[in-house]
Write a structure and sequence with these properties.
By secondary structure, this protein is an alpha+beta fold. Helices cover 70% and strands 8% of the residues. A hairpin with a 5-residue loop joins β2 and β3.
């Protein structure tokens, strides 16, 4: 154990001695690296960060069901599933294209519109300047970096506003056809009911009455004293005998249609609400504000990393060169 420690100590001393012997080229190259990295860091354009924070909503519709889930309230914050869905929407081309077009990001990022790879470069710039991340609290952080602090804040807030626009558009693509189907179904039910009621009215004008009224009609005929009344009641009885069964069938159909229509109305109102309600799908915790201090580049860190990297690289390079010379002598 002691011999190993002695060997390690010896190697360390040899390394320090080697560095000391090569101090001049090491100092020269390191100094050049310091100057070069400093110049490069100064040439880098400063980027300002604006951040908006939103929480996803637990539900995106109003429920007309009596068995409404308490967790689906419009006042509830969304959980992990809703947060993941919101991140996917934020990363979608629907929002990306709107932001790129509204703010002219292709020109802003100095991308040549005639370049064959312009869209690839545009996507790389977009992803490098705009990002969406879930926080540990379940919210979504919308981060925008830009050379212009006002533009960074404007883009971040625009993305916040686009959440509802884009998601409502996506929902409408599915709910509008469903509502149109429900609308046609209700129209058919209304037309059927209207036809039945028209037929009932026609029979009623001819003197056809409900089954309960017919019993009274027979009683009145028996108790009638004048011939005129008996003739009138006889005609009424004959009409009811002829059309009474049809009248009863129409009444039953009417009642069934009314019950069916009442049950269908909940579904119809839900479909109508889903199709036409422009719901908000997020809670805005914090809107983006104009940054008054740059976020990057960190010039001191760039210089330190470049300096340390260059120094370590040169030590290894000189060690390899020295070893190569030794092997050459032994050969």
């Amino acid at each position: 154990m002691n011999s190993e420690q002695t060997e390690i100590e010896k190697e360390r001393q040899n390394l320090l001695l080697f560095i000391w012997k090569k101090r001049k080229p090491l100092m020269t190259v390191t100094a050049i690296a310091v100057v070069g990295s400093l110049i490069m860091a100064m040439l880098l354009k400063p980027l300002f960060l604006s951040t908006a924070i939103v929480f996803p909503a637990a539900t995106s519709s109003v429920s007309f069901s009596e068995q409404r889930n308490a967790k689906a309230s419009s006042m509830d914050f969304g959980e992990e599933e809703q947060a993941e869905q919101l991140v996917q929407i934020l990363q979608s081309s629907r929002i990306r294209d709107k932001v790129i077009n509204q703010f002219g990001l292709m020109e802003h990022y100095d991308i040549d519109s005639t370049d064959d790879n312009k869209y690839f470069k545009l996507m790389k710039e977009y992803e490098g300047h705009i990002s969406f991340t879930r926080t540990r609290y379940g919210s979504i952080s919308i981060d925008v970096l830009d050379e212009k602090p006002e533009l960074a804040a404007e883009i971040a807030n625009k993305i916040v506003d686009l959440i509802d626009t884009v998601k409502n558009s996506m929902i409408a693509e599915r709910t509008m056809p469903a509502f149109e189907i429900n609308k046609r179904k209700r129209q058919l039910l209304d037309d059927d009911l209207k036809t039945i009621l028209t037929q009932l009215d026609t029979l009623a004008e001819q003197g056809v009455i409900s089954i309960e009224g017919r019993t009274n009609l027979y009683t009145a005929f028996v108790e009638a004293k004048s011939g005129v009344d008996r003739d009138f009641l006889k005609k009424q009885i004959d009409v009811n005998l002829k059309y009474g069964a049809r009248f009863d069938g129409l009444e039953q159909m009417r009642d069934e249609k009314i019950v069916k229509l009442e049950k269908f109305l909940d579904s119809y109102e839900q479909a109508e609400s889903d199709a036409y309600s422009n719901f908000t799908h997020k809670f805005i915790v914090e809107r983006a504000v104009v940054a008054d201090k740059k976020d990057r580049p960190k010039r001191l860190i760039i210089v330190l990393l470049a300096t340390m990297g260059t120094f370590i690289f040169m030590v290894f390079l000189l060690l390899i060169n020295e070893r190569f010379k030794e092997l050459k002598k032994q050969a």
